[in-house]
Design a protein that fits this description.
Blueprint lengths: L2 E8 L4 E7 L2 E8 L11 H7 L14 E2 L11 H4 L7 E2 L8 E2 L14 E7 L2 E3 L1 H18 L5
Antiparallel strand pairs: 1-2, 2-3, 3-7, 4-5, 5-6, 7-8
Length: 149
């Protein structure tokens, strides 16, 4: 499975993107500010430009694990549905614990990626619905088929 987050609207405090799965646009995304980081940069260069809790992960290609229980979110209803498993983006230079999870604004991000509909300036709405939709229709089936995401 191939998931693309196409960062479309880069603002001073947040980034809105398009979430595309296997060529199909699903919804929008919200992240922290895009500071021009890429996975080709050194960890030192990334850390020089990164502002903790206010920086989107470096643009690049990553693998998503569907086998990690989130200690922070495992008790949330949306995570409990999946046994506490929250999609984790692996091997992100200069970042730890990057997840895909429900959120409405970049203030909730801390480097993670949220999904929803961009129906209001600077936010996405219905993020829990879109999290369930993506998990139930794409990520859990891929996990069950042992597909690389």
């Amino acid at each position: 499975m191939n998931i693309i987050v196409e960062r479309a609207w880069k603002k001073d405090t947040y980034t809105i993107g398009k979430l595309i799965i296997d060529g199909k646009r699903i919804c929008e995304t919200i992240e922290d500010k895009d500071r021009g980081l890429t996975d080709n940069m050194s960890v030192d260069d990334i850390k020089k430009k990164k502002v903790y809790g206010e920086t989107a992960i470096p643009a690049g290609t990553y693998t998503i694990s569907m086998n990690v229980v989130s200690p922070k979110f495992k008790s949330r209803a949306w995570a409990k549905k999946y046994g506490g498993i929250v999609p984790r983006i692996l091997n992100v230079k200069g970042f730890d614990g990057v997840l895909l999870h429900p959120m409405n604004t970049a203030k909730d991000s801390y480097g993670c990626i949220g999904m929803g509909r961009n129906t209001a300036v600077g936010k996405v709405t219905n993020s829990t619905y879109w999290f369930y939709y993506i998990m139930d229709n794409y990520l859990i089936p891929a996990k069950n088929k042992k597909e690389t995401i």
